Amino acid sequence: MRPKICGGLAGVACGGAAVAVGHLAAMAFAREASPVLAVAAVVVDATPEPVKHFAIETFGIYDKVVLLAGIAVILAGLSILVGILALTHPVAGPAALLAMGVVGAAAALSRPASEPWWALPSVAGTAAAMFVFIYLYRPAAPVSEGGPGTTVDRRKLLIAGAGVGAAGVAGGLLSTAFTPDGGRPQVRLPDPASTAADHKTFTDPGIAPFHTPNADFYRVDTALTVPRLDIADYRLRIGGRVDNPLEFEYRDLLDMRLIERDLTLTCVSNQVGGTLVGNARWLGVPLEDLLALARPHEGADQVVGHSADGWTCGTPTSVCIDGRDAILAVAMNGEPLPYEHGFPVRMIVPGLYGYCSATKWLVELELSTFEDFDAYWVRRGWAPTAPVKVSSRIDTPKPLAELSAGTRTVAGVAWAQQRGIRGVRVRVDDGPWTATELAPVMGTDTWRQWRWQWDATPGRHRLEVLAVTHDDETQTAERKDTFPDGSTGRHSLVVTVR
Ligand SMILES: Nc1nc2c(c(=O)[nH]1)N[C@H]1C(S)=C(S)[C@@H](COP(=O)(O)O)O[C@H]1N2
Ligand SMILES: [Mo]
Q: Residue limits of the Oxidoreductase molybdopterin-binding domain (predicted)?
């Protein structure tokens, strides 16, 4: 093997040791203290809004995987360069490793929930990498190149490679095996004081089911690792501008009046025809009950939700107490909240997009004002609050599908939380609008399934849908981007009939 290749590989072994050992050490305390995850979290928070917007729209739910893969590629590239450089300038190795350690520690310490000892995993990673460096790099025989240089022994490179690989695998296995369950398997859900009515729903193939199964429910958040809170030491604080600050344990919340409701949650980043929307049956404590106990001050017009990972969300106090089913949810579709969807407690407010209403892993409600506090996405230019816009989607047929001529089902869902869907219309090739059949849904806060039997004739056809709300808003055709308060425009697609 050529010396430079050896140098590059040795660099990767040192960088890999730093990452693997740093991550492994973090497993013992707090996963968020892992140097790679902390750096990635800092990148997420520091990314300019247009880039983040692009990432969510391009990679959707895979945005985090793409980010971590990007960081891995950059790290590997730098490690190779430093590894080669260290052959002629040995001091470059320890200097780069030290810099890596400082960056990792600083990133971990900068996280909102950090503790001073969150620097330790980075220190451990750097120490391990230094050890690998000293093991691998030996001063070269003076005859070889002239100046002071180093060489890397191939046999040691193999040993170090195997060692780092094993540490990496062990870290991976350990982090899976030691992921705490937070007591979720032991949760027994109480019966609700009142439950949403059951009604007939459409089950035509291809249409979104009325209740989105938890496993299929979209996930949007800034968390690189899903927080795992433990119900044993869970506390919900209600404070800020209130007469009566409160603290609840998880059990206290389950003992309060619980209501169960079908509510459709929508992301402001959902594009026309997009999938960042889902409907679930949520069980939770009415927010008005909690706020009545805490007694907000006059003028405290914003409820700030704080997540365990430091994310924040601002909701108008008025919508939390205006009689709508705004809740702190503890269960989703009959199960304790899944970890990804905010276990043990999250907020759900019908009618507002998730970024300004749906804090997951909720640990504090702080009564504040819109004047005093900008929540996470508001600081990045999104609207201080945003009601969900009327939307409709064609689920079947799929875009560019090939169908045979005859009677074909065109179907999908439409939503306008808090106002409700009165009608859904479709048209073919800019022809006349036709009313569709609607599933019999009570209430205004869920999406409504619609379907229409189409007499499909051969050729290429464009299908288009629009919804009308109970308060008579007809969905506009005007296309508007999701930033800063949600998209508008009508979903349409082209199919070929044979
Ligand atoms: N803690 C926390 N809660 C959060 C977010 C987040 O990034 N962190 N994202 C919000 C956004 S933008 C949306 S659309 C909803 C999505 O909820 P879901 O992932 O359960 O579908 O959660 C909201 N709650
Ligand atoms: Mo969102």
A: 224-377
